[in-house]
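Check these lines:
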Amino acid sequence: MVRVLLALDDNIPQAHAQTNAVEDLIGGEEGVTVYILHVFSDNPEGASVQQVEAVREAQERLEEAGAEVQLLETSGSPAEEILRHAEEHDVDRICVGGRKRSPTGKALFGSVTQQVILDTHRPVLVCGSTEEE
């Protein structure tokens, strides 16, 4: 059984890149569970994870690929919540998104990605964004 934590924000091209990577990773394997996590930074209207388009699209594609998908939502520090859910669900891998950076900024990952990489013993898959096709 393979368990993957897919941490998505609301950037659709980024979610497509991450979903592509997870589809490649699971490659039709049976017994795969993908936990899709969305961390709300500010949610005064009480939106749910099912209202995030990037999450809905990823869920649909991964279920079509044969994965069991569980949606998770929380608020707080994205890196801390990603790490907490990775531990709680005992995932085998964490998939996070990367951001375009300036030439100088390319030497470092974004703060969330960097914190996740440095503060876990689990493999972390970092995906760059794709252009809409």
Remarks:
- Residues 2-127 form a domain with the Rossmann fold fold (CATH 3.40.50.620).
- The chain has one domain: 2-127.
- The first helix runs from residue 12 to 26.
- The beta strands are 2-7, 32-40, 68-75, 93-97, 124-127.
